[in-house]
Design a protein that fits this description.
There is one protein chain. By secondary structure, the chain is an alpha/beta fold. It has a domain at 1-103 and 174-283: P-loop containing nucleotide triphosphate hydrolases (Rossmann fold, 3-Layer(aba) Sandwich). It contains twelve helices and twelve strands. The strands form two sheets. An eight-stranded mixed beta sheet has the order 6-7-8-3-9-10-12-11, with helices on both faces. Strands 2-1-4-5 form a four-stranded antiparallel beta sheet, with helices on one face. A hairpin with a 2-residue loop joins strand 4 and strand 5 (76-77).
Length: 342
């Protein structure tokens, strides 16, 4: 395992609404090593983006609040960090690329103004030096006519160009951790491929740790070393990219992979997981995926499963593996790791 840059342990982020308390992130644990690309996968509403906002300490409060757990960044617990400390870290040591660049770039300022501001906040350079560095960054991310583009406004650029600007801004201070929240969702397939190649290139050249949030398993296969699968605010499976795609263990992960279209098959109708994501609430009993699971049995509706560690290093939140372990161990021993997983 490479040097740890980020480690989440039992992270809990809840929203306090008029309809009750909502555990959007419920005891989530995973890690990202130096130079590693880790993907968080799941349907909309599973807690992926709230997890990333929790790391950046950008969860809107009220109604959101981190109520428990740890966010260790290079050994420092960000949950306990002051607003002043987080301002020092954001954009400098931890950077984030948001899903829609048009909402992240200020339409009233030129690309150059915004890039130079990001550079000058964290580095002691003159305006002239910041402009030179900004042009260099635009060239690095493959933007043509960088000397002219730097004086243009966001609305004058295409979606792919704006996303490249966001990547340039995120990489301006050579962060140790880059969080990318659905960075290719709004782009066409050709531009998606270019953005993914660019992110991989930056990862390899700068040894930057990347936390990639996506619902696209194709993006995961292209970019990620390890994968965290989330459902209804919880981690339901963790493993390497190859293990998750070739030998998924959790029924939800299997459903996601089964939903992918296959060129070799001529079925007219794609498979979809039956049912919908449940409405979250504190004190829910039973596996959250049980109402949609084809393999659910009585215990699934009565108890909350923990994460079970499997022989190949994968973990899965499913009683099926508890049953297997009980059969294999006459003393009824478990291999549940609960919240102790990394």
């Amino acid at each position: 395992m490479p040097d740890m840059v980020l480690r989440l342990k039992d992270l809990q982020t809840h929203f306090f609404t008029d309809h009750g308390e909502v555990p959007a992130v419920d005891r989530v644990s995973f890690s990202v090593g130096k130079g590693e690309v880790v993907g968080i996968v799941g349907e909309s509403g599973c807690g992926k983006s709230v997890t990333s906002l929790s790391i950046m300490q950008l969860v809107p409060s009220p109604p959101g609040k981190i109520i428990g757990g740890e966010i260790q960044f290079k050994g420092e617990d960000l949950v306990q960090a002051s607003p002043k400390r987080m301002k020092q870290l954001r954009g400098n040591e931890i950077a984030m690329i948001f899903q829609e660049p048009m909402t992240s770039l200020n339409p009233l300022f030129t690309i150059g103004n915004q890039l130079q501001e990001a550079i000058r906040i964290h580095r002691k350079v003159t305006k002239k030096q910041a402009r030179i560095q900004a042009i260099d960054l635009l060239n690095q991310v493959g933007i043509p006519r960088a000397e002219a583009i730097i004086d243009e406004y966001p609305h004058q650029l295409s979606g792919g160009m704006r996303q490249r600007v966001m990547i340039a801004m995120a990489m301006s201070c050579h962060p140790d951790l880059l969080i990318a929240d659905e960075p290719t969702t709004a782009l066409d397939v050709t531009i998606q491929a270019q953005i993914l190649r660019l992110m991989k290139q930056l990862n390899e050249e700068n040894n930057t740790a990347i936390l990639l949030i996506t619902h696209d398993l194709g993006v995961v296969a292209e970019l990620c070393d390890r994968v965290v699968v989330m459902y209804a605010g919880q981690v339901v499976e963790r493993g390497t990219m190859r293990e998750i795609l070739k030998q998924p263990k959790h029924p939800y992960t299997k459903g996601l992979i089964r939903s992918l279209p296959k060129l070799s098959e001529r079925e007219q109708k794609l498979y979809s997981i039956p049912g919908t994501v449940p409405r979250l609430g504190v004190g829910q009993v039973g596996c959250r995926f049980a109402p949609r699971c084809e393999m659910a049995f009585t215990r699934c509706f009565q108890e909350n499963p923990a994460l079970y560690e499997l022989e190949n290093g994968q973990t899965a939140r499913c009683f099926l593996y508890d049953e297997i372990e009980r059969e294999g161990h006459p003393d009824g021993g478990k291999t549940s790791i609960g919240s102790k997983g990394t």
